[in-house]
Amino acid sequence: MTGALTALALLAGCGGGAGVTAALQGAIAPLVGTQAAPAGGAVAAPADPATSRRVEIAALGLSGTARQVIDNGVSKSFSGPAGFTYTLRDGMLVSTRGLGPDLMAADARQSRAALRAGGGQAVRVHETLDGLDRIERAEFNCTVSLQGTEAVNLGNRQVTARRFDEECQGTGLIFTNYYWLDAAGGIISSRQFISQSVAYLRSSDL
Asked: Among candidates 172, 157, 138, which has minimal Cα distance to 205?
């Protein structure tokens, strides 16, 4: 644990802007807050819809329920199937841990602002690890556009939400994020990019 926290602290000092550094600091929370599974074959309590999410990473064959382990009022961190964790800031994916080629930190503030505005242009910044475990920083120019309204399956219910697509392009990499927003502008479901090897994380309210 001490080694993991020290490594994250060093990565935060590598630069990348205040937004990215803050996201990286927020990602430390799951490492501290995640609890071990109950011993002795105890049955886990049913998922609480208020603090759990439905999660899927299709490229890794992972799907199931992610339980909230940290809520600091700004970011929320969740522990998903096979023990990986991810952090959302106002519904935007800002970090993952335990997937190997993780998203170490992301600054998606402009993308979130474009969603609130009903669409627009945004620049987002991602920090990932290269093959030598060094921080690799990439900028993406993105276009956020409203696609209309559609039904969204949240597992135990179906709702109608506004769908936005975020098309992003950087050096040698193109990806598209999907967001479904409720009437208040909250992100109730999304498919957001992690890294080239892992591809996308689908995360939805219950």
From this structure: 157
